[in-house]
Amino acid sequence: MEKKxxxxxxxxxxxxxxxxxxxxxxxxxxxxDSLTVGTTENAELSRIxxxxxxxxxxxxxxxxxxxxLIDVITVIELKTDESIIRELVxxxxxxxxxxxxxxxxxxxxxxxxxxxxxxxxxVIEITGTRYKIEGFFxxxxxxxxxxxxxxxxxxxxxxxxxxxx
Amino acid sequence: MIPLLASKLxxxxxxxxxxxxxxxxxxxxxxxxxxxxxxxxxKHILVRNEQTAPHYxxxxxxxxxxxxxxxxxSGPGATNLVTGxxxxxxxxxxxxxxxxxxxxxxxxTDAFQEADITGATAPFTKHSYLVQNAADIPRIIREAFHIxxxxxxxxxxxxIPRDVQLxxxxxxxxxxxxxxxxxxxxxxxxxxxxxRAIKKIKEAEKPIIYAGGGIVLGNAQKExxxxxxxxxxxxxxxxxxxxxxxxxxxxxxxxxGSHGYxxxxxxxxxxxxxxxxxxxxxxxxxxxxxxxxxxxxFVHIDIDPAEIGKNMETSIPIVGDAKxxxxxxxxxxxxxDHATWLAExxxxxxxxxxxxxxDPPCSDLINPKVLFRDMSEMxxxxxxxxxxxxxxxxxxxxxxxxxxxxxxxxxxxxGTMGYSIPAACGxxxxxxxxxxxxxxxxxxxxxxxxxxxxxxxxxxxxxxxIILITNTKLGMxxxxxxxxxxxxxxxxxxxxxxxxxxxxxxxxxxxxYKVDKNADFNKVLPEAIKHQGPTLIQCQVHPDFIRI
Lengths: 165, 548
Ligand SMILES: Cc1ncc(C[n+]2csc(CCOP(=O)(O)OP(=O)(O)O)c2C)c(N)n1
Ligand SMILES: [Mg+2]
What we know:
The complex is a heterodimer.
Chain A (H helix, E strand, L loop, with lengths): L2 E10 L4 H12 L2 E9 L5 E10 L1 H13 L3 E6 L5 E12 L5 H10 L3 E5 L3 E8 L1 H11 L4 E6 L3 E4 L8
Antiparallel strand pairs in A: 1-3, 1-4, 2-3, 5-7, 5-8, 5-9, 6-7
Chain B lengths: L3 E2 H11 L4 E5 L5 H7 L5 E4 L6 H12 L3 E5 L3 H5 L1 H9 L4 E7 L15 H5 L5 E4 L6 H13 L6 E6 H4 L2 E2 L21 H13 L3 E5 L1 H5 L3 H11 L3 E3 L14 E4 L6 H9 L2 E5 L5 H4 L10 E6 L13 E4 L2 H8 L9 H13 L16 H11 L5 E4 L3 H9 L7 E3 L10 H11 L7 E6 H6 L4 H7 L3 E7 L4 H11 L15 H7 L3 E5 L2 H13 L4 E6 L8
The site of magnesium ion has 7 residues of chain B, from helix 19.
């Protein structure tokens, strides 16, 4: 059965590391839903969050194949109940004098921020889980979504556990 | 510390890795390194096409158990290495490929002879480096050899820009302790899984050991023999596992796979427990194994965790080195009596005998199966045979018997035509100080892919004997065309020009013979073996001899 899984990786900041990781997904035919990269508290290391879809066998293979890459130090699965996983989205919605306040109200209910206003549009910044974001999209859809951009999931384990070398 | 030119530093680092030979081909981006070769004790062997260089390194590695090294210039030199690197990757052969690169400032500008070789080879290198600072050279070379030769072996590429080779470095040569955060191969089997495996082995009524290339690469033949004998468990090998178990042993059960023995496949299908040690279970090995009983159990021992469960569901995974895990299993109390099973296997063997005879017109010329069977009787116990790809490969793999210290190398995973000549040369360089019989088995198609290397054979008077199977066809593809589309549906598989291979050999000063009868082959073979230096025996096989 196919499911979405969120993986958190600690990698060495070596030449070509990102292309090695993305190349692995491409050539083995695994589907990447999203991938985010960023620096860490250690300048030599980066942290990557990858969301993938696949059945159990494929997910196990993905983890093993990632672990085989020399630059990859650790791979863990961020389980939803033991982790915080969020995504940042900017949505540009059609808004005129008659709809603007309604949209702002919806945004407030979702604790989203209005980050840009023009005469015919609003840009809303929302952070949250996939479900929250889907819910928000549903609510603003009728007003007309002009464009949006998603950062992809990023996440951390809850509690004292840390991902270390 | 006196500054050292980086090009010299590179060779010093190779010396520290005990590199004797580098198989390479020069070019502009390697001028500094080649200048350094003049005064280095490392011998540079000039191959005749970079495409063969990784195969030399591979043959050298397989024969010597050490890392093989190949070298090519930037751009076309580097891209010529690609097939050979992929060949080594699929067969897990430890090689280090060094490539020249354009100057750092030119990278990314489509400069003359620039190619992104680390990118091009990423799918089939175990790891690769682009050297950006000469000071990193000692670390990178040490790591490259370490990564290539430990865990599951494989090719590592080191790409070195020309201007890096020209830097003066004030760095020590020594970089001894390798510490790569993300690379700690696991050798010992998990004790809990080993316990579970022992229980299964004890319970099994029809166990079989399926031995792969991991036994050969991991030098675990002795341990496998002890374990199999102690527990009376029969052993089947994969193509890459040839040489894992002596073929004259009563527990030996042949080679499995689409190109294996029929009886071996029947035996494997009948097993209730398969103990897979170092085999990948690739589609070529298992595609015909459709009849597995629902309750067949798999114990899979492999150094690469990603192989376990990749192609076959595994009941008990044991991640570890073949030699280490077998050594852990041997003292355990597993002894069981498999007399009934062994008797059943004997019946299967008798019901599915190896077929040697052929009908006219095939029988009018050389019978290749008989040829390799006979050759088994006439060659030394430490012979190395390097098979190419095609029917010639399958005949030599199935009918030349690997016993005692004999070895059989071939390109199993990628099936790269043209492998045999350079790989055998590499093996020959590995044994210069203790010469032995090394045979090349190739077809008329595969021979022509690496024919230029006769120049190296002649130049160095390598003690290799070429068994050239000529059927004027790309035999194996023609066989596939016959099986798939029927008689007469041949397309692009004729090698129509009747080449005078003896004249070709003569041009290189290589002693040659041409035979079209098995009896004649048996006459000339001892002569060829006795002859000091290289020989070629052209063996004429009928184009329609397509049975394996
Ligand atoms: C580089 C490469 N190209 C193509 C193939 C496909 N192929 C497999 S066997 C074969 C024919 C080999 O012919 P030959 O060397 O004469 O051997 P034979 O089968 O006749 O013994 C070919 C073309 C291959 N394995 N490798
Ligand atoms: Mg042929």
